[in-house]
Amino acid sequence: MVRNAAILVFIIALAFFRSAAQPDSGIHKIKHIVIIMQENRSFDSYFGTFPGADGIPVRNGVPAPCLPQPQGPCVRPYHDGYDLNAGGPHSARNAVSDIDGGRMDGFILNAQRGRRGCAELDNPACTNGGTRIDSVGYHDGRELPNYWAYARNFVLQDRLFQPNASWSLPQHLFLVSEWSAKCSRIGDPASCVNELQNPDRPRDFGRRRAPGQPGRPDYAWTDLTYLLHKAGVSWAYYVMGGNEPDCADDAMACAPRRQTVRTPGIWNPLPAFDTVKEDNQRQNVRDITQFFAAARNGTLPSVVWLAPAGRYSEHPPGLVSAGQAYVTGVVNALMQSPDWKSTAIFVSWDDWGGFYDHVAPPKVDENGYGLRVPGLVISPYARRGYVDHQVLSHDAYVKFIEDDFLSGARIDPRTDGRFDPRPDVRESMPQLGDLRNDFDFSQPPRTPLVLPNGITPPYAN
Questions:
Q1: CA-CA distance, 31 to 426, in Å (whole number)?
Q2: Alpha-carbon separation of residue 89 from 125, 168, 396 (angstroms)
Q3: Torsion of CA 320, 322, 325, 330, to 10 degrees
Q4: Residues 76-135: pLDDT tens digits?
Q5: Model-level pTM greater than 0.85?
Q6: Number of other residues whose CB lies within 10 A of the CB of residue 257
Q7: Are 300 and 32 in contact (CB under 8 A)?
Q8: 130-153 burial string, b = 16+ CB within 10 Å, else e?
C-alpha cells in the first residue's frame, strides 16, 4: 500500500514537472496584452494612402469620392499637412448621417452643421476656432512616420470598426465591458437597458441629466475585470493626469477639469463599475507613471489599458504629433522591457471623430458596428508588414484576452454568474475575425524596433 502510494505520488510529480517544462504555445506565448486607445480618427484619415490597404479609392491618380457640401462644388479627400485638426461632430446621430445609408458622404455636411451649432455635443470645431472644414483631409507618412513604420514592420488592420456607432463614452464602455447601458437602479444589473448615446455620464459631463445624483455614474452590468478577477488574472488601467476631454468637447458649457485615476470619466469608466468596487479592484486604476515603472521592472500585469489626457490623445484640439510621440514612448518602453518577448500591443482610436472614411460598416446588431478606425498590432510574434483584411472591432481585443487568459470564457450573463440584459454576446458574433491571424507564433521573437521622438513622463500639461 505504501509502495503504491509512493509510486502514485511519483507519477503525479513527474506529470507536473513535465507539464511545467512544456513551453507555452500559440496564443499562450502572450503573457501581457497592452491596449493603447487614442481618440477620434478614421482609417482613411491616417492610412487611406497606405500601400496594400483598402484606402481611399483613386481614379486617374485623383481621389474618386467627392463629398457634397450645402453650397458649392463637392469636395474630394485631400492631403492635410496640418498638425491640428477639427474633424466633425460624432454623436450616434452624426454616425447615421455620415454613413448615409452606406453612401459615406455626410462628413462635410455634418462638419458644417456642427460649426453652426456650438451647443452640439462632441463638436471640436467649437473649441479650435472652426476656421477650416478638414473632415475629408488625410495624413500620410509625412505626418505619421512612426505609425506608418509600425504598419510597415508589424500589422495594420484595415477592417477594424469601432464597436458601436457613437462617441467616446460608449466606446470606452464597450472596450472594458462589451456594452453601453443605463441602469435605473444603482447596483442592479437587471435594471440596465441598452443606451448607445446617453449612458450614465460622469458628473462634470452631466448637463443632460440632473447633476449631483448620489452614487452616479453607476455601471452595474458585468465588465471584463469581473472575469479576470475571478480567474486571478492581473490587470491595470493606467490614466494620465491632465485636462479631461469632457470639457474640451463642450468648452462653451464648462471649464476644463482635471483627470486623475480617481475621476470616473469618459476615458476612465472603470472606477464607476460596481464589479470593480465590490471586488476591491479600484486600486488597479493607476497613474500612468506606474506603467513605465512596471515596464522597466518586468512587472507588467497580464491585461493593460492606457488612457491619455487630452493633450496626447489626438482628440481635437490635441496635436497629431503629440499623440504620436506619446504612443511611441509607450511602445518603446514596452520594447525595452524584460516583458517584450511575451507582449502583444494593440493600438487603435476609439471612434472616427467625424473624419471621412469610405467603407460602410457592417451591421451586427442594434449598436453597430460603427465607422472604421485604424488598428495596429505590435508584438515579437506579429507578422511583418501584414495587412489584415478580416472584419474586426475592438470586441476582438476582449475576445483575444478571454482566449488567452480565460480559456475562452465570455462576458455572458447566461454563464458568468451575473445576470444583465445585454442584447448579445459581442465576442461570439459570427462576423468577428480572430486576432490570432495577425501572429506567427512559430517564428522566433522579433527584436525591438525602437523609434525616435517618443516621450515619457513627466508630461506637459
A1: 23
A2: 8, 12, 26
A3: -110
A4: 999 999 999 999 988 899 999 999 999 999 999 998 887 654 544 444 555 444 456 899
A5: yes
A6: 16
A7: yes
A8: bebbbbbbbbbeebbebbbebbee
